[in-house]
Amino acid sequence: MSFKLKISIAVFIVATGFMAGFFYALPVVRARVQPSYMLPVFIAAGMVLSLMLTIAVYAFTRKIPGRGAVRTVEKGPETAVPPPPAERPFDAKAVQVLSLLQKKGRLIDFLQEDISGYEDSQIGAAVRNIHKGCREALQEHVTIEPVMKESEGSEVTVVEGFDPSAVRLTGNVTGSPPFKGILRHSGWRVAVMSLPPLPENHDPGIIEPAEVEVV
Q1: Are 186 and 146 in contact (CB under 8 A)?
Q2: What CA–CA distance (Å, rounded) separates 171 from 174?
Q3: 20 to 30 A Cα–Cα from 27, which one of 12, 104, 130, 171?
């Protein structure tokens, strides 16, 4: 049942009851006129009054927005409002490293491009420039050192309690450490990272901004 219908029923009951009660509450009227004759007259008057009040309620609720009222909203001209920034599910510093590799060596451009249609000689020339720029970016902001200091190809021993995230065992791995094997790759770890501070109000998800040439 709608709010307006509830109001209308309530107004009808109150107005009709009021008129009937008014009839029986006036001693003067009861002394001069028989109740059986005047009661229908007062009830009819109450119905007319309730109808008038119902119309007034409808008009009032249309003008004032609220519960059960008709809310009228005038639409203005549409404008492009960007949505509020959502919580970023990534590390801003990791994106900044990608940004530096893109800025120096155009690494993201190269990885995002389909190179299946290029000749090997064309790819080789492009990779040389990418390698040079990315190497400069790493040397400028990140100090990388090998996980194991021994020379690749030499025999090494992996002792008990080694870190599985730092040393990956391959080949015939059986039993318990210590393990003896050949160092195939020294691994890499970050020793020092010195990234420049991000500008204020910077979107941490931007690797490289879009470039627009104004004409």
Answers
A1: yes
A2: 9
A3: 12
Q: Which two tokens stand for residue 96?
A: 């900044």
> What would the two tokens of residue 164 be?
């599985």
Q: How far apart are CA 150 and CA 167, in angstroms?
A: 13
Three-point CA angle 165, 171, 175, nearest 5° = 80
What the block records as the tokens of 6 is 């509830």
Tell me the pLDDT tens digit for each residue of 149-206: 999 999 999 999 999 999 999 999 999 999 999 999 999 999 999 998 888 888 888 8
**CA–CA separation, 7 and 67 (whole Å):** 12
Residue numbers in the chain where pLDDT is lower than 50:
64, 66-70
- The C-alpha torsion from 167 through 169 and 175 to 176, rounded to 10°, is 0
